[in-house]
Amino acid sequence: MAKPTGFLEFEREAAGERPLTERIHDWEPIHLHLPEERLNQQAARCMDCGIPFCHKGTILNGMTSGCPLNNLIPEWNDLVYRGLWREAYERLARTNNFPEFTGLVCPAPCEAACTLGIHDPAVTIKNIEIAIIERAFEEGWVLLNTPASRTGKTVAIIGSGPAGLAAADELNKAGHSVTVYERADRIGGLLMYGIPNMKLGKDVVQRRIDLLAEAGIQFVTNCEVGRDVTAVQLQNQFDAIVLCTGATQPNNLPVPGRELNGIHFAMEFLQGNTKRLLDGELEGEIGDRRLEISNGANNLQSPINQSPILASGKDVIVIGGGDTGTDCVATALRHGCDSLVQFEIMDQPPVHRAADNPWPQWPRVYKMDYGQEEATAVFGEDPREYAVMTKRFIGDEQGNLQAVETVNVRWLPAENGERPQLEEIPDTEQTWAAQLVLLALGFRGPENGLLQQFGVATDPQRTNIVTENSSYATNVPGVFAAGDARRGQSLVVWAIQEGRGVGTAVDAYLMSE
Prior knowledge:
By secondary structure, the chain is of the alpha/beta class. It has helices spanning 6-9, 20-23, 36-44, 73-81, 85-95, 99-105, 109-112, 125-139, 162-173, 190-194, 202-214, 231-237, 266-278, 322-335, 370-379, 448-454, 484-487, 492-511; strands at residues 58-60, 63-65, 154-158, 177-181, 218-220, 240-243, 249-250, 263-265, 315-319, 339-344, 384-386, 388-395, 401-412, 421-424, 430-433, 436-439, 443-445, 479-481. Strands 5-4-3-6-18 form a five-stranded parallel β-sheet, with helices on both faces. A five-stranded parallel β-sheet has the order 8-16-9-10-11. A hairpin with a 5-residue loop joins strand 12 and strand 13. The radius of gyration is 23 Å and the shape is globular. Mean pLDDT is 93; it is low at 284-302.
């Protein structure tokens, strides 16, 4: 283990973030990093448990607990404590294709399952993970995963998010010739366009994409499979096809006034903002790190929203919580909105774990993410309003949004095994000024058109792709699925795990072993 008494000697010290009043004026990453000596101390807190829960991902009470990638966390904590950084990187790289992504954007279910967390603050696993991979890049330890020989087999991967990239990496390492199709003008999927730059720098994403391309993976951008190239064409050209399209159908809010101008899905807002930033059209542009379009038919129209959705000078309401809602809050602040409110239909979580939410479940407790912290710094209070339901949108004669009408609600206890029921509270109606509403209500599943072309079976409830016998193979021979398109909206770490899993399944299919 690391240091037998480390968890008794050292307090948890997280790396922290840039000052609130500084970072809201730019699009630069907010994360800070600890020096090596203090990282050694943080790694020393790892207890090397007899049965470590941190590296076994599972779903408990509807939430992820532990690492879905089965990262060898106690092992690389021990190595960091002893100053053996290269060996720590080698352990980390065995299970995680992209630690730089999970080390920045993963909510760290590993820490939620840390045994030390039963009675003390958990080990700073996420901080140590990002420190290991950044040290590896600085020292030149991250090498190309180029195979010694090629098998002659070809694979098409549709979608370049974390699942698609992980699948491409695994299959390329196995010697297959891999082509990744992306309908946007840049590779990366939600890593590039779905997560704002301040949470995940796009140079970090491009750094990994460049390595994958150098290792032999072919990337085709501005190409929407199903429109620019058909399913039949790909099936005739490739030995196997992997669908990693993500769960991109947003949940709508069909209340009166939904058709008014000024109401947008969250991803329209976030994707359009990131594209403008990368194209150098926003203040605080990335400058020398601006990412150029390097592959694909660049004369095609990108599906990313071309018309800017601006929050500057507006009263903004974000409907829905979660990571996407937080990202909308942080982005609207950087635009310079006049006011900002975030509605959540659920009750405010307790400050401490409830009796029905024990360790090692994910702690359902009140906390402020980076966006809410920034909003509090600007406007003086947490922007979230809990147990609020939107009743209707109100507009002017020109069809422009002017206000949102809400009512407070309460949740009635579940009976006979059914779900809790929602009840409106009389005389709690309220009208909120708003010229911009962002819907961050989660996602239903993948878009149907492409799936129909391939003829793959889907789940009737959420349109997720159905795979056979809990594998990654669809009902169509040679066509596989992974990531959010298969399991539904989830975490980046689950997407990487799915990409690794489908890579193994496709390799076995191609090589008959």
